[in-house]
Amino acid sequence: MDLLIKNGTIVTATETYEADVAVDGGKIAAIGTEFNEKDFTEVADAKGKYVLPGAIDGHTHLALAFGGTISSDDYYAGTRSAACGGTTTVFDFVQQGQGERMLDAVKRRDAMASVDAAVDYSFHIGVGDVNTKEMLDSMEEAVEYGIPSFKVFMVYDFGVDDGSFYKVLQKSTEIGALVGVHAENRDVNNLLVERYLSEGKTEAWWHYMAKNEMVEGEADVRAINLAKMAGAPLYIVHLADEMGMKAVTEAQNEGYPIFAETCPQYLHFTNEVYKRERGRDFVCSPPMKNQASQDAIWDGIQNGSITTVATDHCPFTQAEKDWGITKKDGTPGDFTTIPNGCAGVENMYPYMLAQAVSGRITMNKAVELCATNPSKLFGLDYCKGAIRVGLDADLVIYDPEKAFTITNDAMHGDTDHTIWEGVQLKGYPEATYSRGNLVFKDGEFLGKRGDGKLIKCKKLSFTGPEL
Ligand code: URP
Ligand code: ZN
Ligand code: ZN
C-alpha cells in the first residue's frame, strides 16, 4: 500500500478517535490499529496530531475578471495556496456570458483550470443570461454533466432581476440543482453610492455604508421569500449580517431548505477595518459589518444555522486597491473604483481550527463547516469531505500546538498582501495530502501544477434544513 498515517487522532464531523489511516491508489483503503509498516511505501507519524479530512472551499474567484482587472491568483496560485492551508478542493465560479450555454461556460473555464490546478476543483455557474427558454433550459445540461450548482447575483451590473432569480429557482427544483445567491439590494446600493459621492465621501468607509446591514439584510429576506414562493432550496453565500442571519434561522425553524455560508473575514473583522489607513485593502462585497452582525453569525455557527464556511477568495494587489485613491488613468478614485475582494483560501481551515483549539467551537464543528457540509451540500459526499474507507485520501495532519502568525510572506498565493497580516493562530496544518499525494509539508508547497482534477457533483435535492 502507498501510505500509512499512524498514531494520529482522527477527527470527523461526528467522531474523534485514535486510529491509523491506510491509503492506496489515492483512496482511503482502511482505518485501524493493526497495520504493519512494512506493507507501506511511505509512513507518516501523526503522534500528538489530528488527522482531518481536507477542507472544501465552496467559494473562490480565481483569475476572475472584475473591477477593471483580474484577481491575482490564477488556478495554480490559488490551489497552491489552498493546499498549504489544508484545503484540498475548491469550488470556483464560472460566469455565464450572454447567449452562452451553461455547460459551454463550464468547459471554457475548465480549459484553464485543468492545466493549472494543483488540487481538485469544481464549479458553480454564475447566472448571466436566462432571458430565453434555451438559456434557462441549458441549466439541465450542466447538471447532467456534474455541475448542479448555480449562483445568482442580486447586485452588480451583471446581476439578474427578481423575475429571473425566481425562474432559476423554479428550474432548479425540476433538474436537481441548488441555487446560491449573493444578496444585496442593488437599487439602494446604487442610490447610496450616488449620494455619498455627491457629498464628496470617497473613502473605503463609504463602501460599507452603501452596502450596510439593511442593504444586505433586505436582500437576504427577499431571497428567502423568493425561494419559498418557488418551492426551492436556497444557499445564501457569504452571509455577513444580523437581519439575514435571523431570517435564515427562522426559515430553517419553519422547515425550509435554506442554507447559509459565511466567511472567516466576517467572523474576525468588523466594519472598523474600513477606518484603518489601508481600509481599502478590506473592500469586499458584502463588506464586514458591525459587532452585532458578527455576534449573530457566531450564534449561527453555534446553533447550526450556518451550514458552511468558505472564503470568497478574490485577491487584488495593493496597487489595484489604490485605485480607490487614484484610478488606473491617473484621475481621482473613490470607494467604487476599488476592486472588490480579498485573499483567504489559505486561511480558512487554519482560522476555523484555531477557533476549535481555543475552545470557541469543537474540532468536529470546524470539520463539519469546512469539509463535511460542503461535500454534502454540493454533492461530493460520494468521494470527499470525510475520513471513510473508499473516499479520496484528501487528508490533513494538524498540529494543535504549533503557534503561527499569518504574514503575507508565509502565504503561497501570488498576492502581495493579506488582510490577515499579524493575526496569531494556535494550531496549524503540518501536512496536506491530495488523493494520497503529499502537497504541503512544514510550510512548503510540494504539489504539482495540473495535478488537480475536475470533480463532478451529484444531483441535489433538499426537502428540509438538514443535509
Ligand atoms: O468582494 C467580492 N466578494 N468579490 C468577488 C465577487 C463576489 O461578489 O463574490
Ligand atoms: Zn458574491
Ligand atoms: Zn464571491
Q: Describe it for me?
A:
With 467 residues, this protein is an alpha/beta fold. The protein has 13 helices and 21 strands. The protein folds into 2 domains: 3-52 and 384-445, Roll (Urease, subunit C, domain 1), CATH 2.30.40.10; 54-373, TIM Barrel (Alpha-Beta Barrel). The chain has an 8-stranded parallel β-sheet with strand order 8-11-12-13-14-15-16-17. It has a 7-stranded mixed β-sheet with strand order 3-2-7-18-19-20-21. The protein has a 4-stranded mixed β-sheet with strand order 5-4-1-6, with no helix packed on it. The two termini are 34 Å apart. The mean pLDDT is 98. It binds N-(aminocarbonyl)-beta-alanine and zinc ion (2 copies). N-(aminocarbonyl)-beta-alanine (URP) binds at residues 61, 182, 284-285, 312, 314, 340-341.
- The Rg value, from CA coordinates, equals 21 Å
Assign the structural class, choosing from mainly alpha, mainly beta, alpha/beta, alpha+beta, or little secondary structure.
Answer: alpha/beta
Per DSSP E runs of 2 or more residues, the count of β-strands stands at 21
In order across it, which strands form the biggest sheet? 8-11-12-13-14-15-16-17
Q: Give the overall shape, derived from the CA principal axes.
A: globular
Number of domains: 2
CATH topology of the largest domain: TIM Barrel
Which stretches of 5+ consecutive residues score pLDDT under 50? Answer: none
Q: Any idea what the CATH superfamily of the largest domain is called?
A: Metal-dependent hydrolases
Given this structure, which CATH class of the largest domain is correct?
Answer: Alpha Beta
Which small-molecule species are bound to the chains here? N-(aminocarbonyl)-beta-alanine, zinc ion
Overall pLDDT score: 98
Query: What fraction strand?
Result: 15-25%
> How many separate helices?
13
Largest sheet: 8 strands, parallel
The rounded distance between the terminal residues' Cα atoms is 34 Å
CATH architecture heading of the largest domain? Alpha-Beta Barrel
Helicity level, as a percent range?
25-40%
